[in-house]
C-alpha cells in the first residue's frame, strides 16, 4: 500500500486525501498528541525523551556545493525572511537531533530538502503546479525540477521529491530514508516544538540567535489558513481539523 506522502502516492493523487489516508493520518496524530504531553507525565508513562550531548554549532557543516548555494539563493529570493529562517533552522535542528544517533546521511540532499521544503507556500510556486493539490507536493515538484536542472540523477531527484512531500505527514519513520526522517524531525521541532527537550538549551538558543523566528508562528498560521481554504482535501486542512493549529500556537517559542 502506498504511504501517504510517498512519491508514488503524490504522483497518483497530487496530494488529495482519500478515506484510508485520513484514517492513517489520524492514527499518526494520536502518537503526536502523546509526544505533546507534559514531560513529567511522559516520564511516568515511560516515554520520556533522552537528552543529547552538547554539540558545537560551528562543527555543523553547511554543504559547500554549487547546488546548495543556489538552493539558498532561490529560497531567499522567493521566501519571506521568517520562512527563509525556518528553512535554515530546520536543517540545524535535524543535524542536532541526528548527532545523538551518529546518523550518516547525504548532507547536500538533506540541506537542499530543508532549504526548499516550503517552496509550495511561496507566491512564486503556490497554485502554479496543476498536478499538485497540496503545498508539500507542489514544493516537491519545484525542488525536483531544481535538482534535475543541476544534473542530479532521477533516483536522487526523486528522493528529494519524496522527502519534501513526506514532511507534512504526522510521522516519517527511518524506513522512509534518513533525509526524509530528519527533514520531518527538523521541521516538526521548529513548527510545534517536537523533541525540543532533546536539544541542550544552549544549543537551542544558538539556533534561534543565528536564525531568529521573526513572528514565524503568525506567518505560518496565515499561510496555512489560505491553504486550507484553497485545498480542502489536502493533508494540512485535515490536520488542522485534528488540532494541528493549536500545536503551532502552543509551540514553546516566544513568537
Please, could you describe this protein's structure?
- It is a single chain.
- The protein is an all-alpha fold and 255 residues long.
- It has one domain (7-39, 62-249).
- The chain has 13 helices and no strands.
- It has helices at 7-13, 19-35, 39-44, 66-78, 81-99, 107-116, 135-149, 154-166, 178-192, 201-210, 216-230, 235-241, 244-249.
- Helix 5 (81-99) crosses helix 9 (178-192).
- The protein is globular.
- Mean pLDDT is 90; it is low at 36-49.
Main sheet, how many strands, which sense, barrel?
A: none
Portion in beta strands: under 5%
Q: Radius of gyration in whole Å, from Cα?
A: 17 Å
Q: If you average the pLDDT, what whole number results?
A: 90
Spans with pLDDT under 50 lasting ≥5 residues? Answer: 36-49
Report the span from N to C terminus: 40 Å
Helix/strand class: mainly alpha
- How are helices and strands ordered from N to C? HHHHHHHHHHHHH
**Helical residue percent?**
55-70%
Please tally the β strands and state the result.
0
The total tally of domains equals 1
User: How many separate helices?
Assistant: 13
Key structural traits:
255 residues, 60% helix, mainly alpha, single chain
Describe the structure in brief.
The chain has 255 residues and is mainly alpha-helical.
Amino acid at each position: 500500500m502506498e504511504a501517504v506522502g510517498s512519491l508514488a502516492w503524490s504522483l497518483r493523487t497530487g496530494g488529495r486525501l482519500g478515506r484510508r489516508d485520513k484514517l492513517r493520518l489520524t492514527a499518526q496524530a494520536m502518537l503526536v498528541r502523546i509526544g505533546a504531553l507534559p514531560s513529567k507525565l511522559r516520564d511516568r508513562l515511560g516515554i520520556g525523551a533522552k537528552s543529547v550531548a552538547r554539540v558545537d554549532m560551528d562543527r555543523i557543516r553547511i554543504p559547500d556545493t554549487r547546488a546548495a548555494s543556489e538552493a539558498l539563493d532561490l529560497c531567499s529570493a522567493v521566501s519571506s525572511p521568517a520562512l527563509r529562517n525556518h528553512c535554515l533552522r530546520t536543517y540545524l535542528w535535524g543535524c542536532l537531533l541526528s548527532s545523538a544517533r551518529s546518523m550518516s546521511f547525504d548532507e547536500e540532499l538533506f540541506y537542499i530538502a530543508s532549504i526548499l521544503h516550503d517552496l509550495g507556500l511561496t507566491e512564486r510556486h503556490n497554485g502554479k503546479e496543476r498536478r499538485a493539490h497540496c503545498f508539500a507536493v507542489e514544493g516537491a515538484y519545484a525542488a525536483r525540477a531544481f535538482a534535475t536542472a543541476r544534473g542530479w540523477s532521477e533516483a536522487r531527484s526523486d528522493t528529494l521529491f519524496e522527502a519534501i512531500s513526506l514532511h507534512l505527514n504526522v510521522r516519517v519513520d527511518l524506513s522512509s530514508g534518513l533525509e526524509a526522517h530528519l527533514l520531518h524531525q527538523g521541521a516538526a521541532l521548529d513548527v510545534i516544538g517536537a523533541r525540543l527537550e532533546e536539544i541542550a538549551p544552549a544549543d537551542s538558543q544558538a539556533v534561534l540567535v543565528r536564525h531568529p523566528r521573526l513572528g514565524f508562528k503568525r506567518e505560518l498560521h496565515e499561510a496555512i489558513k489560505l491553504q486550507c481554504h484553497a485545498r480542502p482535501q489536502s493533508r494540512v486542512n485535515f490536520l488542522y481539523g485534528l488540532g494541528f493549529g493549536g500545536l503551532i500556537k502552543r509551540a514553546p517559542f516566544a513568537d
